[in-house]
């Protein structure tokens, strides 16, 4: 995973984005964030429902542990197809533009999510219930896989050079907002009881989708992609190109991302099921703790992204990986007390610190690792390939717990932290002191001359 090249920065290449960003930069950031919020509401809502309801709604209720395993397996299927969505979305984003992918992925996700809200249960149609659930979950996975690259790249390529961590952090913050809204919906629907407790949150998604489509249709196309078209430099096959010339960065980013998303799969998705199955906390306590963590996580994600603009991408990621590495056993010691305050603290550290310190960095760092002509494909491929691991992590965690108790999932968390730590040390810094100084000088020159700059320090040829 290491390069043979010296660590010196690669030469900059032409950029169509001014040092201070485009006039539409704030509107694009909001549009990308709103879309990410809606897609996360839909996708994460499935994870919450899988942990709390689907084991009995879509599978035989005679064996609760088997139902939980099958429910998490269905959850994992959506993650498993996300790389395919990332490949298709990334390819189209680099070939026809970032904006069309944004709109199409959101529409597809909305249709699948509303469909979940009207699916028949196992008691109604037997084996056809899990078959239909798997089908719509596959569609969700494809849509979500295509979403991230387009949203992040649109925001990154409109943003000021010196604030790309902040701006992509805003888009990444759409994910905790979506998590917050999804769990608010599930918490509010608990009193409904029966199937309505999980159907209503999915049906409510229709309103969010309509708002999101309107906002995204008004977002301007990326100036970087427009520049590639003007120069005739659009990649003919971005997937083959990035695999041939930049596979090392794909592998690095895959490992970096796995720490964050697989860690979340244990510390949040599995933990929700663990608290219920072990009768350590009721659903209202678990969901309330997650809501508090998600609320704090919104600001935390933006802050961590902004912090990378000042100190670099790698130091912040190192911090998150070290905390994750050390957190596994203390997390379960807190959970096992069954005390509500301890459970809230557990979710706060797991999500607002471990997960958000990594997620806040990824938008800018992953984008900077790849050249503009293959950026959507490279970043999306690395980002979504990790979903295969994280999607089945709750299943693995459940199996480990059944075999050796809570120490199994605890050590799994630490393993993912160690993986991220090694990957961080082997991935080059893209926003070190030299890059930051170059950006400052370019911005000063741009203000003095009133002309677009000819080069962006973030558009570096991948090592």
Automatic annotation (TrEMBL):
Secretion signal span: none
Q: Which UniProt keywords apply?
A: Cell membrane, Membrane, Transmembrane, Transmembrane helix, Transport
Compartment(s) = Cell membrane
Give me the segments passing through the membrane.
69-92, 101-122, 128-154, 166-190, 196-215, 254-275, 287-304, 316-335, 341-361, 381-400, 406-426
Domain Major facilitator superfamily (MFS) profile residues, every copy: 28-432
Q: Name one Pfam family in it.
A: MFS_1
Query: What PROSITE patterns would the database entry show?
Result: MFS
Q: Does the keyword Transmembrane helix apply?
A: yes
Instruction: Report which superkingdom the organism of origin falls in.
Output: Bacteria
Q: Where is the composition biased (Low complexity)?
A: 450-463
Chain intervals with Pro residues compositional bias = 1-10
Q: How does the record say this protein sits in the membrane? A: Multi-pass membrane protein
InterPro entries attached to this UniProt entry = MFS, MFS_dom, MFS_trans_sf
Q: Where is this region: Disordered?
A: 1-24, 443-463
Q: Which PANTHER family match?
A: SHIKIMATE TRANSPORTER
- Name this protein carries in UniProt: MFS transporter
Organism the protein comes from: Actinomycetospora atypica
